[in-house]
Amino acid sequence: MIIDSAHWLNLAVALGIGLLIGADRERKKAITGERRKEGFGSSSVAGVRTFTIASLLGAVSTAIDPWLLMVSIFCVTIFVTTASFISKDDNPSLTTEVSLIFTVILGGLAMSEAGLAASLAVAVAILLAAKEPIHWFVRGAITKDEMNDFFILAAATLIVLPVVPNQLIGPFDAINPRNLWLIVIFVMLIGALSHIALRLLGSKAGLPIVGFVSGFISSIATIGTMGTHARKAPELMGTAVAGATLSSLATVLELSMLLAAIHPPTLHALAFPLIFGGVTIALYGGVVTLSSFHHKGAEIVSPGRSFSVKTAILLAVIIAVALLASAALNMWFGQAGLIAASGAAGVADVHAAVISVASLALEGKLTAANAVIPILVAFSVNATSKVVAAVITGSREFSRQVAWGLVIQVSAMWIAWWVF
After folding, report:
1. Within a 10 A sphere around the Cβ of 79, how many other Cβ atoms?
2. Where among 138, 163, 196 does a domain terminate?
3. In a designed cystine with 322, which of 142, 265, 316, 347 is the match (CB 3.0 to 4.6 A)?
4. In this predicted structure, what is the pLDDT of residue 352?
5. The pTM is what?
């Protein structure tokens, strides 16, 4: 590569990378210098000038010959290793040394991918500047159990999920393993979000907010997670019921958005049922939430584990059994029209049923008026699945209150359809 006018911008980016990272290290160098005067160790050997020159070294080396960049990295590594060895620091840290080597690499990267190099430099600068908050969070803010839960969630998402088959298997081709594992991940994720909300916002505000937001992901999984909270900590009963109830409000809002995007006439045909269903569950959830606010219960000092893996897997198994039963009934007794099919699909996920019915209406195979009943049936069956999840994961009082809210919501939707 020959340096010409087209590469001045790349060199400027390399210069900025060195200045950005070096500025933080210069500040750290001044702090450690003061500590050295007090007899607490030695100061760093690299400051803003060293980092800037290192970044430009990487850029120019790459421009001349990529192999020269390897030589530059090797030489800088030898230099920083030697400097660290002779510094006689009683509390050695390799952060500055590793950052200096990485700055050389970023300078070389800036000659071909300036945007990526600049983004990485900003990320490194943030990590360096946020030393105290990061150390406080890892060492003091989170517990060992919370860290283990994070590792479990990361492994389930990044290691297990990519290798799970994404195809229909089993009897009647009713089960998609990837979808079931996504349910497990959603339950654990919602549990983790609830746990964080409990830590940051307290039990009164945390669970209702998490319940509403998580309802856009999976209302059944949300209700299962809230039931677990209510069973393990009875003092969270009111807020857990509020979170579970508000997740059904999120379901109505999400269905409205799906219908608006796929087939607006179907949304117009379902306008009154959706409005009545949304308003009634919002009122019910609001009353439960306000009631929980006025309840003088002790705040949870330690919420415990972030989520229950057993609960997540149990919900996935229940949904799998329900899917098998629905497929078997359709196979043995035939498909009694679109209504039966929508009801079977609504056992596990109402969104799939709504999307399929709206797609048929979009293709002209079904009128918007005739799409109303299949969608309401799917919603009603899905509400039944929510009640089952509440019964399995929560206490009797929790499942009773959640069931009443769902009964009121579903009844209001059918009454609105019958009246209007």
Report:
1. 17
2. 138
3. 347
4. 67
5. 0.58
Other CB atoms within 10 A of residue 268 CB: 13
Regarding whether 181 and 73 lie in a shared domain, the answer is: no
Distance in angstroms (rounded) separating the CA atoms of residues 17 and 15: 5
Whether the CB-CB separation of 61 and 72 falls below 8 Å is answered with: yes
Number of domains within the chain:
2
Q: Are residues 146 and 29 part of one domain?
A: no
Distances (CA, A) of 19 to 12, 72, 409: 11, 19, 60
Task: Tokens for 191, please give them.
Answer: 């549990």
Domain with 62, as residue range(s), is 5-138
For 56, 102, 274, the CA distances from 109, given in Å and listed in that order, are 11, 10, 54
Q: Which residues pair with 175 in a beta bridge?
A: 169
pLDDT at position 202 is: 62
**Do the beta carbons of residue 64 and residue 1 sit within 8 Å?**
yes
Token duo for residue 348: 């596990």
Q: Helices marked H in 38-156 — which ranges? A: 48-64, 66-86, 95-109, 114-129, 131-136, 144-155
- 167 C-beta neighbours (distance < 10 Å), count: 9
Give the model's pLDDT for residue 91: 52
Q: How many Å apart are CA 189 and CA 167, to the nearest integer?
A: 23
Distance CA 377, CA 342 (A): 7
Note the pLDDT of residue 80. 83
**Three-class DSSP labels, 204-220:** HHHHHHHHHHHCCCCHH
Considering the domain architecture, whether residues 397 and 373 belong to the same structural domain is answered as yes
Average pLDDT, consecutive stretches of 10 residues, N- to C-terminus, the chain (420 residues): 68 92 81 50 66 93 89 90 70 77 93 91 89 75 77 90 85 78 79 69 71 77 84 83 89 85 87 94 88 59 62 72 63 56 66 70 76 86 88 88 93 92
Other CB atoms within 10 A of residue 92 CB: 12
Q: Are residues 182 and 235 in the same domain?
A: yes
- Give the Cα separation of 385 and 391 in Å (integer): 10
CB distance 201 to 288 below 8 Å: no
| Residue 141 DSSP one-character state | I
Residues 243 and 228 grouped into a single domain: yes
